[in-house]
Amino acid sequence: MTTASTAPDLSAIVKAYDVRGVVPDQWDERTARALGAAVADVLVLEAGHPAGGSPDTGTGAGAARRLVVGHDMRPSSPGLVEAFAAGAQDRGVDVVVVGLCSTDGLYYASGVMDAPGAMFTASHNPAQYNGIKLCRAGARPVSLETGLAAVRDHAAASLAGDGVGVVDDRGARTDEDVLRGYGEHLRGLVDLSGSRPLRVVVDAGNGMAGLTVPAVLEEAAGLPALPLDVRPLYFELDGTFPNHEANPLEPANLVDLQRAVVEQGADIGLAFDGDADRCFVVDERGEAVSPSAVTALVALREIARERAADPDAPVTVIHNLITSQVVPELVTGAGATAVRTRVGHSFIKEQMATTGAVFGGEHSAHYYFAAFWGADTGMLAAMHVLAALGATDQPLSELVADYAPYAASGEINSTVHDVPAAVERVRQVFAARGAGFDELDGMTVTAPVGDGDEADGPAPGAGPGGRAWWFNLRASNTEPLLRLNVEAVDAATLAAVRDEVLALVRADA
């Protein structure tokens, strides 16, 4: 019998929004089985869904006791999935294993089956990591506050005690391929059949886009051909990531795509992360397109789609607070409501649900759609950009110029000895100048209206939000880091504000 002293420390791998850790050092198949049983108890049975019913119905009693499970291409994923599924079956829950898929493919399965889901992936983390992204039925998010803590505690009790309890009516296991349905659903939301021919270079980073891009944008899943000439980079599924990390947020991981776009005379480049739920865009010059610009472009398309269906319907778009100010400016200019929220997918998804928003975007390249159960899907965002580009003769660089009028720093991390003291230094300096403050997430500071002298830049009024600049300073939850994002009316103003803030932040480094 395992004792509490020898049981793994689940608090080290159960994070705010998912499970993530090194395999087998921090967790293994035995842990996965306990987590499967715990997810069955908390997200299926304790959620008010009794066991029982037919496993082959999409809704109703059969769906009420079902759990859908998918995984990425990491070497440890298949074994962890088998153990997890067995643990859920032990508790009387039927498990549908959809096999290799992207995270948004798992959300699709959760949505159409109306069942809780578990996606085995560590996204862009190195090969030795693995994890689980969980959702409730209909792809609704799960966090520590909404079920993940209870999953952790149930699993820890099993591991420290007599193991998973097996019910008499053990659940069934079925396998189902949802790839074609996923592709059909996305194509039903964005029609690319009338696009002008586009040459598209895609860097899958040896991640799950190597499976989903051929299925959705090409004919691998049996769907009709589109006017797209897809040029693949690193489509071989390989969870050891032999070419580069599957994290396009790091500029070094975009270099191969940028070079290929220019060398091949492509119209656009797309880069996906390991589990293919995020997508980054490169224009025909090989220049990265800001995710804020993509957010603005897609937001206007979604607003237009809603207006076409009902011209008088209220339309809401969500954006996080480090997204460019151009997003709320364009959204409100289109007659819709822009709602600003904290950084993090759980906050975006919560606001999507409570406001009835049609779309939400983050500067990290997560894009959320009401038409996709409020969940994030990089593929659908990419299709919107392709559709917009395919409907014009403009090159992508010209198309997105209006969506990126301001200079932005991107996220700059600083390691500091005393985070509160560093923040206070910044607060005192800018408060003395009459700057605006809010603390929705960290500290956001905005230039005083009518006074742009602090940054030695042009007078405010034409800048983001009618001000010359703004910046956000957020502390990491896990490390002694401060994260800085700055946006300004021009590059000179940006540099002045950025450098002053960093000097204050790093004064004790």
Automatic annotation (TrEMBL):
Residue span(s) of domain Alpha-D-phosphohexomutase C-terminal: 411-503
Give any GO molecular function from the UniProt entry. metal ion binding
Pfam families membership: PGM_PMM_I, PGM_PMM_II, PGM_PMM_III, PGM_PMM_IV
Segments forming a coiled coil: none
Q: Which cofactor does it need?
A: Mg(2+)
Query: From its record, what is one biological process in GO terms?
Result: carbohydrate metabolic process
Query: CDD domains given for it?
Result: PMM_PGM (cd03089)
UniProt KW keywords:
Isomerase, Magnesium, Metal-binding, Phosphoprotein
What family classification does the UniProt entry report for this protein? Belongs to the phosphohexose mutase family.
Q: What is this protein called?
A: Phosphomannomutase
